[in-house]
């Protein structure tokens, strides 16, 4: 599934799409971010225990520049040799309110 197909699926179901782990799978160029925003992207995961403090600042700034909500998470992908990050960081509660206040595409 392409990013635009995923966006259409999420927004078509009434959800708000957020790019998680932007360092790993996020767009590399501003034009790519702009395309995602134009197609309904709502947020960017800026806060995560795997993000160094400087990366969190950069992602938070990028989210603001793009008009996105800076979200966060502490997800874990299981015990199979992956260190547990669950609960180690959290986005401000305002991020949830900001997502809920966004218009639906």
Helicity range = 40-55%
Radius of gyration: 14 Å
Query: Uncertain segments of ≥5 residues (pLDDT<50)?
Result: none
What gross morphology would you assign? globular
Largest sheet: 3 strands, parallel
- Average of per-residue pLDDT values: 84
Derived structural class: alpha/beta
Distance between the termini: 19 Å
Query: Taking strands numbered 1, 2, ... along the chain, how are they ordered across the largest sheet?
Result: 1-2-3
Which percent range describes the beta-strand content?
Answer: 5-15%
Count the beta strands.
Answer: 3
**H/E topology pattern:** HEHHEHEH
Individual helix count: 5
What does this structure look like?
The structure is a single chain. The protein has 105 residues and is an alpha/beta fold. The chain is 44% helix and 13% strand. It is built from five helices and three strands, in the order H-E-H-H-E-H-E-H. A three-stranded parallel sheet has the order 1-2-3. Strand 2, helix 4 (53-66) and strand 3 form a beta-alpha-beta unit. The chain is globular and about 30 Å long.
Topology:
Elements: H1 3-12, E1 17-19, H2 22-25, H3 30-38, E2 41-47, H4 53-66, E3 69-72, H5 93-101
Parallel strand pairs: 1-2, 2-3
Q: Can you summarize this structure?
A:
With 105 residues, the chain is an alpha/beta fold.
Can you tag this structure with a few keywords?
13% strand; 3-stranded parallel sheet; alpha/beta; 105 residues
């Amino acid at each position: 599934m392409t990013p635009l197909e995923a966006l259409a699926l999420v927004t078509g179901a009434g959800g708000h799409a957020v790019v998680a782990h932007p360092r790993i799978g996020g767009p590399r160029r501003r034009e790519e971010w702009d395309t995602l925003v134009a197609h309904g992207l709502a947020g960017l995961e800026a806060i995560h225990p795997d993000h160094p403090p400087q990366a969190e600042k950069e992602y938070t700034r990028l989210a603001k520049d793009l008009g996105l909500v800076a979200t966060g998470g502490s997800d874990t992908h299981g015990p199979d040799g992956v260190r547990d990050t669950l609960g180690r960081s959290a986005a401000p509660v305002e991020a949830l309110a900001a997502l809920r206040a966004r218009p639906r595409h």
